[in-house]
Write a structure and sequence with these properties.
Layout (H helix, E strand, L loop, with lengths): L19 E6 L10 H9 L4 E7 L9 E8 L3 E2 L2 E2 L6 E2 L6 E7 L1 E8 L3 E8 L3 E4 L4 E6 L5 E8 L4 E2 L1 H6 L3 E5 L5 E5 L2
Antiparallel strand pairs: 1-2, 2-3, 3-12, 4-5, 6-13, 7-10, 7-12, 8-9, 8-11, 14-15
The protein binds 6-O-phosphono-alpha-D-mannopyranose (M6P) and zinc ion (ZN).
């Protein structure tokens, strides 16, 4: 790999000409939301895009850094805000940095069987996800939530781990309209 630079659109924060664009619709994450009936109804009603990712380069080599921008759309399934699938890194000894660029939301981090941390974030916040912690982002706002993420190229995404056990908390809208953290177990 050689040094390079790429422009970012400072309004949308999209990376210009990404090599890979991944779009995740609700149907790509069946079973993730607590309210299965609301999930199925939303899929039947149009299957909304929940989030998309833009990667400038496909980086998998140890020593290099992978990075991408994620745009999460506003929305809910039942009272649960739109969220990412969430993952833990296949190589557990790898961390990640998030820089929130637009909107407001929550970052759920969980060290399996040990600890869980939910922090409410907004544009301008930088978050550090230490090695070994699973992570999921939630859009609690009424506009897009956009963030930039950087992590070791060889980290890998372990989704099966999250599919099997989920996170121990969910972020939902309380009756007063505010986001709240609800424990699952
Ligand atoms: C961030 C990074 C990416 C991740 C994306 C979406 O941009 O952590 O590695 O792919 O969020 O999250 P997920 O992979 O859990 O769907
Ligand atoms: Zn990650």
């Amino acid at each position: 790999m050689k040094p390079y630079s790429i422009p970012v659109d400072l309004t949308t924060w999209m990376l210009k000409e990404p090599k890979r664009r991944v779009v995740r619709r609700l149907s790509d994450m069946k079973g993730y939301y607590k309210d299965g009936r609301a999930e199925e109804a939303a899929i039947q009603a149009g299957d909304p895009v929940v989030y998309e990712m833009y990667e400038p380069e496909i980086v998998e080599r140890e020593g290099d850094l992978a990075y991408c921008t994620t745009t999460m759309y506003p929305g809910k399934v039942g009272d649960e805000y739109f969220m990412t699938k969430g993952h833990v890194h296949q190589v557990r000894e790898t961390a990640e940095v998030y820089f929130f660029l637009k909107g407001e939301g929550a970052l759920i981090c969980e060290l399996p069987d040990e600890d869980v941390d939910v922090r409410f974030v907004k544009a301008g916040d930088v978050c550090y996800v230490p090695a070994g912690w699973a992570h999921r982002t939630v859009n609690t706002g009424e506009e897009e939530l956009v963030f930039f993420a950087v992590y070791p190229g060889h980290a890998g995404h372990d989704y099966a781990f999250i599919e099997a056990r989920g996170f121990s908390v969910r972020v939902t809208q309380a009756p007063n309209g505010e986001p709240q953290v609800v424990r699952e177990r």
